[in-house]
Protein 1
Amino acid sequence: MTRPPAGTPYWDPAELPPQPQLHGVVTADVAVVGAGLAGLACAYHLAERAPGLDIAVVDAQRPAAGASGRGTGLLGPRAGPAVDRAVRRFGPQAARRMHLASVRAVEDVLDLCTRLDVPCGLRAGEQLMATRSPAGLVALARQARAHRELGLDVPVLTAAGVRDRVGVPYTAGLLYRPAATLDPAALTGALARACAAKGVRFYGESPLLAVRPGDLVGPELVFPHGRLYAGQAVLAVNSAAQAVGLPVGTVLPLEVYALATAPLGAPAYEALGGRAGHAVVDAVPMAPYFRLLPDGGVVAGGGTATVPTGLGPPRLQALRERAWGWLERWLRSLHPGLARVRVTHRWSGRIGMTGDDLPVVGPVQGFPDVWYIGGCCGHGLALSAAHGAHVAGALLGEPGPGDPLPWHRSRAPLLPVRGPGRALLRAYVGTLGRAARRRC
């Protein structure tokens, strides 16, 4: 069987609603720019809670074309920095609220999959954060202590406890529940179809060029072939915010890498947790991880990240090939049964990183009736849907959750992304990746 071209993800969103280009002058009560999980969740909750609201969703390409359809489908609780760092920065009460919010986000996605009643490849299971290195063991010990002091249900696993779940010689681990794995493009596509069934209009192949305060009410959104005037707008555009000059701080694009294999032999599949559906994430920052697929294959990601801005296509492709090559070698080292398994897909995706590891979910300063969602820092599968629901409630004037979470804010810290600063950022990210690869 011929392998798809490099860059083709394993996932396929299947049938999507019609998405003509946006031409001429278009109006809407609410405009949602970005047809990923955050934007579609926002549109879905708006349409469900306020039937009759005129909602338009516009995407630079199509639903699931970006990070929401190019992830690896690990659904687990994580929000912002590791819990021990969150305690130091925000205090124990806020750190506990952050973790519990991420747990609720996972539960809400599981509930959403049930309500959408579509096959999303969902497999409920456990997520293990494990390590084989001394540095990872130190990180796990700090996090385990913080979880215990905060009264959070995150059990510690010994080497034997990890081995009972996956046959890889990890030293120790933490067990996160609830958790699951799913097909992220299928979920995104299902949300798009559910939105269309509720009357939401879609426009595709229409990248946002500019945002301007409207003359009378609401913003003016400028696209290559037309303009959209809305009473309110939600810009779920992640790191593309910089390209249109949104004052949301720095949401840095990072390119991350993944691959998928053909079905494994039965012994290897079961040794890696086949029937239970575990996902395993290494405790070292930026380190690799893996999960099993319902068809018997395995998906792996992590280990390398690249700041892609300013790199020409040849240089970027060379970095991709190097990242995929290392990830394949790491995957094959996990179990003898993986030594000859065929890699069927290799792809990359863009995530949005911030200088303090926190998302940005809030009104855009200087732009009345415009909200922004982005910067989930690689933990966006559950959080993106939660952010979309939160913004939908805010637009409808519903009461908030009480004390705002640390990511309910209008901007992230600024980072030096131009000139010499970009080279320094690229070097820093590269150093983190090399350190992670050495420890794995």
Protein 2
Amino acid sequence: MRGNGDTPAKARPSLTEGPIAKTLILFSLPILLGNVLQTLNGSINAVWIGKYLGEGGLAATSNANIIMFFLISSIFGFAMAAVILIGQNLGAKKTHEAKKVVGTSTVFFFILSILVAAFGLLFSSTILTWMNTPPDVKDLAVVYTRILFAGVPFMFGFNLIMAILRGSGDAKTPFYFLLLSAILDVILNPLLIDGIGPFPKMGIAGSAVATFIAQLISFVLLILYLYRKKYFLRITKEDLPLLRINWTIIRTLIQKGVPMGLNMVVVSISNLLLVHLVNSYGSESTAAFGVAMQISSYVQMPAMAIGGAVTSMAAQNIGAGLWGRVNRITWTGVAVNILMTGLIVVVLTLFNREVVSLFLPPEGSAIALGVHINNLTLWSFIIFGVFNVVAGVVRSAGSVVFPLVVAFIALLLVRIPLATVLSHKYGFDVIWWSFPVSFTVAMTLNVIYYQLGKWRQARMIPAKA
């Protein structure tokens, strides 16, 4: 079946048929590789900045990167809401309704990105002052931050297109263009920072301009690619009336997106409070904890990728009314997470000291403490993966508040009081035991709600859009 110049229906990606385990793994791998790629991109750029600009440059960019992380977190919920809304519509074979979501989301993200970019360009200095940015790096941070804010429309646009593609069942195309962006960014950074060859020497501004150019080129080429391939959710000349504010869809994006965005805020607050607590035990503890958290960020990546994959898969199947398949997707996702995360945990446990030693100097007790922290916490990320997958399926139905409540309870009402109060009474190790305890609470609550709650009755698709 064809319509409006779309690709044939049979050629479109579908997550409502075929073997679940194979589909889940093939769908989650590009998401996983994309997450790894973005992390490596940031690490390599930090190496360039440190090499050419020293500690001052690193300090300036770290402050700016905190702002960028907050911005990405703020649109994460809206993007996920778009993923679910598009997925459910496609599962229900309502392609035109999915295009309505694309049209309204495009206008919404465009307006939002312009407002954010303008605000950042005008108030970068004020924002950095609020963050207590050290005076000796403040000017560098302002220059770097302003250029990053100028690139916000491309960053927001790229995230929206990735959401649309993943909602329609395509995780490969976003990865290819993330790869292009990362390669351009890594190559351009030293060229523009130090003025190598015909390139101007721009210092800290060069690093930000490199990111700006990489995002712009990747964003434009991705749009051209999708139109050349006649991607079925592209906005054609006949679809131009869909580029408008549909308030029903906007309300849905906000009502469902804000709780998912707040989930990341809860995680960030929990981590900041934990860092504040660990800092009170001295610099070696802080260093060891920092390394352990850097290692755990990689351990979490399979769970995050599988969680994103099951959300897209479940959304399409919920739209199609295939509830039996939704249940199989859930438990297949849990099993795949246990295998993938478990394998990484086993390898890191076997080579624990060697991995920690990559980040810390051989003298001092920080290495031993880092190894100890890993021994107590790494295995708990298998539990983290289980609750993340189950929560992803629950969200895909449109039930987004309960997973937020669970995160709040587990991370702020269980983990932080446990680590703060009991560590002073029973010792330093209580801080690390707060990880498996809080993750177990989150897993238990999410699984109980999945089995007994009314999440299947939630509605994402508006009655009339």
